[in-house]
Amino acid sequence: MNHSPLQTARYSYEPKLPMILRSAMNEIIAVEGQATTSAADQDKIKALFPNTFGQKEISFQKGENNAEVKKNVVGVILSGGQAPGGHNVVSGLYDALKKANPENQLIGFLGGPSGLTDDKYLTFTDEYINEFRNTGGFDIIGSGRTKLETKEQFQKAAEVCKKHNINAIVIIGGDDSNTNAAVLAEYFKANNCGVQVIGCPKTIDGDLKNDDIEISFGFDTATKTFAELIGNIERDANSAKKYWHFIKLMGRSASHIALECALETQPNVCLISEEIEKNAMSLSQIADYVASSVVKRAEKGMNFGVVLIPEGLVEFVPEVKSLIAEINDILAAKGDEFNAIESIKDKIVFMNKNLSAESLSVYSILPEGIQEQMIADRDPHGNVQVSKIESEKLVSSLVEARLKELKKEGKYDGKFNALHHFFGYEGRCAFPSNFDSDYCYSLGYNAFMLIQAGCTGYLSSIRNLSKPATEWKAGGMPITKMMNIERRHGEDKPVIKKALVELDGKPFKYFAENRDVWAVDTCYTFPGAIQYYGPESVCDLTTVTLKLEQSN
Ligand code: FBP
């Protein structure tokens, strides 16, 4: 394989572990803390997880550990969308396993959770793993979005584990994958399979976080990568002074990525879906809001700017949300009729005929391209694929229409040239920042410590992350502690509570206090590329969001 100079240099980067995990393994003990409950719906979660509900928090501390060192065969799975640092979770886990006992084995299931049920795997060796250390991507074993949730899948998983003598599975995934990890842990325990399950919190979206999981891995690198690009665009906009850039940013539901990028780059406008939903803003109110920045800047002679738009926006605008729900119902009830129509134009006509008057009034103001995207293929769970809806074009076309009206009324006299961007895939496999390299390696290493301590149904938890790695704390959190019951596809399901942007949280408040100035003046900041070598004050800093969240 050919390697770039950075790739070669990163192979020899030594990720930083929390101080406690640097000790010899027989000098680390698992200390039990408080018994836990669940985020909500305790009786229901307890009934669904009779064997794993209520377990105690775990923290690793210095102490004499005389427990017998057993041979371990551990399986690992990467699940869901890529996030920078996944390779380091695997290498941290591998190194810890080998440090405990060179006879230990790590088996990687290929292509996501289906690798476990289909028994597709590889066995890690030093040579193989060394090619992936401190690099981005999930190509070490591949990833997939198959959900492990049926009894047949669990039985198959148990058979495969038995075949390989696997005593623990580590699932590296987001909220859904870790929910499934909890269900699998419960199944294995209820059936005395002798297989522990540990989760690791992954997703660039940043929506798997709570008091115990301060940040999901990948969020730091992805937002730094997007912020670099946004900063470059801001500088271009400020140089050429002729374009308004509409930039959509990944993040299926929550707006954490957009908010962090706004804190990093101070754009003219950043829409936050959670706020739009709370204020029940309509599309035309959103257009008015963005247009007011365009108008005020034009009055100062600045016909350029930058607008950030979270990927999930459309599902948070109440009128569009109802429209999407209605389209889903129509597709469910009249799917055959709809699929038999060949041309997209005729499909739109069909939709126009079937929508209620209220939804039709929203659907008809959408640009044709967006109308098409709204009725395009659903994902396997019947959801609109938000990453395919060009909301950056939707917002800019609504703003353009509003500006035309204002021009007619003599209230606007500027020029409006829009350009569109979508940043998502650009950041998901970037070389992990030092923070993500260290954090992910620690999560993987710590996952093994939890296995050794006999835990199952736990998430690997590394905390105190706004401090240097030496001050990080290591432990484990029962997954059921993070669960509640939510209605999903017509059924009540136990799920890890998704963390949306908190409008009374410090990061949003800071943004809200400053955005009116950013909307009119040019206050851009340019984060530049991620730095891997150099002063810690430049290379090891994590997100502004985390810094604000952990500030006094
Ligand atoms: P995860 O929640 O699995 O980490 O993935 C999130 C995400 O990166 C979203 O930001 C985006 O909407 C989605 O994946 C895209 O999915 P796909 O990789 O299937 O195109």
Please provide a brief summary of the model:
It is built from 21 helices and 15 strands. It has helices spanning 5-11, 42-48, 86-100, 114-117, 126-130, 151-164, 175-190, 219-240, 256-265, 273-278, 283-299, 318-340, 344-354, 357-363, 368-374, 391-408, 425-428, 434-452, 506-520, 536-539, 544-549; strands spanning 28-35, 56-62, 73-78, 105-109, 121-123, 168-173, 196-201, 244-249, 269-270, 305-310, 418-423, 458-463, 473-478, 483-488, 491-496. Helix 11 (283-299) crosses helix 16 and helix 12 packs across helix 14.
Q: Helices and strands: which structural class?
A: alpha/beta
Rg estimate, integer Å: 25 Å
Strand composition percent: 15-25%
If strands are numbered along the chain, what order do they take across the biggest sheet? Answer: 1-2-13-12-7-6-3-4-5
Counting DSSP E segments of at least 2 residues, the number of strands comes to: 15
Percent helix, as a range, is 40-55%
Largest sheet: 9 strands, mixed
Q: What ligands does this structure carry?
A: 1,6-di-O-phosphono-beta-D-fructofuranose
Number of helices in the DSSP assignment: 21
